[in-house]
Design a protein that fits this description.
The structure is a single chain. This protein is of the alpha/beta class. Helix content is 38%, strand content 15%.
């Protein structure tokens, strides 16, 4: 998961003037252990969501849980330690990430079976979303041990609600494949899915990914959500091709990126061939075959290969 930065104006560990004095070890608590779901206090695994950018987004219940847990299971202990220091939590950290998960999981299960209460956190956001916690959760369920969840920040949800695109039905695809051929296959699978699509993407690959989607999805609306909840949060919205052109010209953006793409327009795919030919005739007056194809694909939402075939046929007719 993307890692948070301390984006608050108040320095870590420093109280605002007039605030009530609290314990040196723990901040003032508004949640109590008795408020937890049944089973979380007496032992078991608690999934704890943590901030994705602003450390002040930590919930009181999450702070209480991390204070009281017998141990905290984390991805990168350096990242989690910064969060714990911000809230004065003296937790015992156990790293659990993709490189050590297979070896670390049996020891964690023994601790849980012995009655310990462990809190699982990711570097940022909600555990199990693009992090290695899934197999540990499956092991806990299969062993019949207690499992509960403390909700909080989530980068995919932040991107979805900031995008301005339909949120009632969505698909989260994590990171797309890096290689162009594999990415194209994945995009093809998603072309007709009647849902808003949400992805994480590397800033360096963003422009190429937008272009690949534009060539297949046509004029669909999209949004690039950058640095959500952080000081330099930015949302850029528009048609896929327009966003691709912007990032091709401006270069890779800085920070963490969530890419959101709107669902297919039910009417766009039904633009008839005759209408496409007329658009192509106009476009070909001042554009190359490739550029005209891209332009009409963006206008109509038709598949690029269909528009390209019409353009080729039109070119042959003109030459004849």
């Amino acid at each position: 998961m993307p890692k948070p930065r301390n984006a608050t104006s108040q320095k870590p560990g420093r109280r605002k003037r007039g605030a009530r004095k609290t314990s040196e070890k723990h901040p003032e608590r508004t949640a109590k252990a008795s408020d937890w779901p049944s089973g979380s206090k007496r032992g078991g695994l608690v999934l704890v969501a943590t901030p994705i950018g602003n450390l002040a987004d930590m919930t009181a219940r999450a702070v209480e849980t991390l204070c009281e847990a017998d141990g905290i299971v984390c991805e990168d202990s350096r990242v989690t330690r910064k969060l714990l220091n911000r809230y004065g939590i003296e937790g015992r950290l156990t790293p659990y990430h993709e490189h050590n998960a297979e070896k670390a999981r049996p020891a964690l299960m023994r601790r849980l079976e012995a009655g310990e209460s462990l809190a699982l956190v990711s570097d940022a956001g909600t555990p199990l979303v693009s992090d290695p916690g899934y197999k540990l959760v499956r092991a806990v369920i299969e062993a019949g041990l207690s499992l509960t969840f403390l909700p909080g920040p989530s980068a995919p949800i932040a991107g979805l609600v900031l995008s301005g695109l339909p949120p009632d039905r969505f698909f989260f695809g994590g990171f797309l494949p890096v290689k162009a051929e594999a990415k194209s296959r994945e995009i093809e699978k998603l072309a007709t899915l009647p849902a808003t699509l949400v992805f994480f993407e590397s800033p360096k690959r963003l422009a190429a990914t937008l272009r690949a989607f534009a060539e297949r999805f046509g004029a669909r609306q999209a949004a690039v959500v950058r640095e959500a909840t952080k000081l330099h949060e930015e949302v850029r919205r528009g048609p896929l091709a327009t966003l691709a052109e912007f990032y091709e010209a401006s270069g890779a953006p800085k920070g963490e990126v969530v890419l959101v793409i709107g669902p297919p327009d039910a009417d766009a795919a039904h633009v008839p061939d005759d209408a496409c030919r007329e658009l192509l005739r106009d476009a070909l007056q001042g554009m190359s075959l490739r550029d005209a194809t891209d332009a009409v694909t963006a206008q109509t939402g038709r598949k690029r290969r269909e528009v390209y075939a019409l353009a080729l046929a039109l070119g042959k007719e003109t030459r004849a």
